[in-house]
Amino acid sequence: MHLTNMPEKNFDFSPAVKPFNVIQPTEKEFDLFRELILKELGLIWGKEKIYLLHARVHRRLQYHQLQTFQNYYDFLQSEKNRSELQFLYNAVTTTKSGFYREKQHFEFLRSEILPELKERMIRKHLKLRFWSAGCARGEEAFNMAMEAHDFLGTKLISEGGLRILASDVNTEVLDSAVKGNYTTEQISPVPEVLRKRYFVSDSDSDKNNDVLSIRSNIRKLIQFRHFNLMASEYPIATKFQLIFCRNVLYYLDPERREQLLNKLVNHLDDQGWLVLGITESGYRLNGMQKLSYCIYRKN
Ligand SMILES: C[S@@+](CC[C@H](N)C(=O)[O-])C[C@H]1O[C@@H](n2cnc3c(N)ncnc32)[C@H](O)[C@@H]1O
User: Fold this and answer.
1) How far is the CA of 169 from the centre of ligand 1 (A)?
2) Which CATH code is given to the segment(s) 18-92?
3) What is the pLDDT of residue 3?
4) HSE-up of 159 (CA within 13 Å, CB side)?
5) Cβ(228) to ligand 1 under 6 A?
6) N or C: which terminus of the chain carries fewer CB neighbours within 10 A?
């Protein structure tokens, strides 16, 4: 058959949905989204973020063929479109992270926390439970796992000796965290000895050897879960000896910070440690002793 005889539609390579300009949000429209983001995620979006809203979200409007932010807001209000909220959450959360980010916390983990926990594991058969709350692409949780494995050794942490919960509200970063793949540049802050021990190259899928995967012995220590830290209760029965919740509070409004901190303290075991980001200082927490400007210990 000659191509010219083919029905015309077979030659139409243009996308099914024609791209069109999404109009910048008005101040009134931006306020609707500010309130929604605050109510659902506890995040503060100052007036200066009006352009960011457009930059991060306009593709969703194009996808749904909606031209204005008011149209998109109305779309989100409908019960049948609830699942769209997740796309909004993924777009508006700030997910910057990295291995050995705020390195002093991992030094504290190795010099103060792990020696004491090791002692209790040996003497009292303590099982370790850690939580990376707001884990982004998993670097923080894998970092905790590598440090603990390196310090405690396989024997102590096997058979449930160590388990780490890593949670986030953003499903895109969680999907990436579960894969546990990182570029050599992302891994560069990891000391060479740990890099060699805990990463493996996946030469089948990565011909340039630029992407390394976390080894399965570290991966299986971590459970990644999706939930919103603003929920009144968390789907967790465990008490943790250590919670890292770093660079999450920074983006929240003051009332939500207080509420979140109280919930985290409730999920800490007696004598457990809570580590916040280095800019997240100045809190006074009931029942907690302040060890440094952003590290607390439960009484
Ligand atoms: C800036 S990252 C910090 C990552 C890591 N903790 C660190 O310090 O490198 C903040 C993370 O918190 C998550 N987050 C923000 N609001 C949240 C909420 N209400 N519930 C759960 N996770 C949230 C974001 O999706 C993001 O991945």
Assistant:
1) 7
2) 1.10.155.10
3) 32
4) 5
5) yes
6) N
Residue 137 and residue 177 in contact, taking contact as beta carbons nearer than 8 Å? yes
Strands 181-183 and 211-214: antiparallel
pLDDT at 10 over 80: no
pLDDT score of 70: 98
Q: Is it the case that residue 249 has pLDDT exceeding 50?
A: yes
Atom of ligand 1 nearest to the CA of 41: 19
Q: Is the CB of 280 under 6 A from ligand 1?
A: no
Structure confidence by residue, pLDDT tens digits, 112-156: 999 999 999 999 999 999 999 999 999 999 999 999 999 999 999
Annotation: CATH topology of 104-298: Rossmann fold (3.40.50)
Cα separation, 229 vs 41, whole angstroms: 8
pTM: 0.92
CA of 136 to the centre of ligand 1 (A): 6
Span 205-229, average pLDDT:
90
Domain residue extents for the chain: 18-92, 104-298
Q: Which atom of ligand 1 is nearest to the CA of 137?
A: 27
Distance 138 CA to ligand 1 centre (A): 11
* Ligand 1 centroid from CA 117, angstroms: 27
